[in-house]
Design goal:
It is a single chain. This protein is α/β, with parallel strands linked by helices. Helix content is about 55%, strand content about 15%.
Length: about 210
């Protein structure tokens, strides 16, 4: 079977990590070879960069530094983990990929989108997901869901910032058929069933 690259996107607390894990469990139960990862993170170098990016002691980080660190982590992740897994013919599931950079840094941080795209293309060797699920929730629900959690540097951004990210995702989803926007307020297992149906249909096409 041809490899398949599936990503999950959305603002913090949207349930994307939960759905990525549930999809992996389902596909493995169906006998598929699945590689699950996350961004920022993955290989050791990328995880070390993740720690810098999310550390609350780094609130003075500029938008440009943030962008370059995300891209550095993504390049290592793509080169060391994602491309080899895809070349092995595995289904790769990733909790975030380059769409996060367009939403968070490109739009919410008001950076040059042409430059962001060029740098992303360079960092990823032009690797593009086949299918991207956007779990959509209002930013106000994010605040509620994260009440009992110690927030990292990104999670502790303002409601206004997270609403910009949410709007960015919804606008991005209009321009490519690989995107599927899903209401993240629905029951976890209803969302999971919907995702399974979409993935199974997509697998028939490849």
């Amino acid at each position: 079977m041809k490899s398949l690259f599936i990503t999950f996107e959305g603002i913090e607390g949207s349930g994307k990590s939960t759905q990525a894990n549930l999809l992996r469990e389902y596909l493995v139960s169906q006998g598929q070879k699945v590689f699950l990862s996350r961004e920022p993170g993955g290989p050791k170098i990328s995880e070390q960069i993740r720690d810098i990016l999310l550390d609350n002691d780094n609130k003075m980080m500029t938008a440009e530094t943030e962008l370059l660190l995300y891209l550095a982590a993504r390049n290592q992740h793509t080169s060391e983990w994602l491309l080899p897994a895809l070349n092995r013919g595995e289904i790769v599931i990733c909790d975030r990929y380059f769409d996060s950079t367009f939403a968070y840094q490109g739009i919410a941080r008001n950076m040059n989108l042409v430059a962001v795209k060029q740098m992303n293309d360079f960092a990823t060797y032009n690797l593009k997901p086949n299918l991207t699920f956007i779990l959509d929730i209002p930013a106000e629900l994010l605040i509620y869901r994260l009440l009992k959690k110690k927030l990292d540097r990104i999670e502790s951004e303002s409601v206004e910032f997270h609403n910009k990210v949410r709007d960015a995702y919804l606008n991005i989803a209009k321009y490519d058929e690989r995107y599927v926007a899903i209401d993240g307020r629905e029951d976890i297992y209803k969302i999971h069933d919907d995702i399974i149906s979409i993935v199974n249909n997509r697998m028939k096409e490849i």
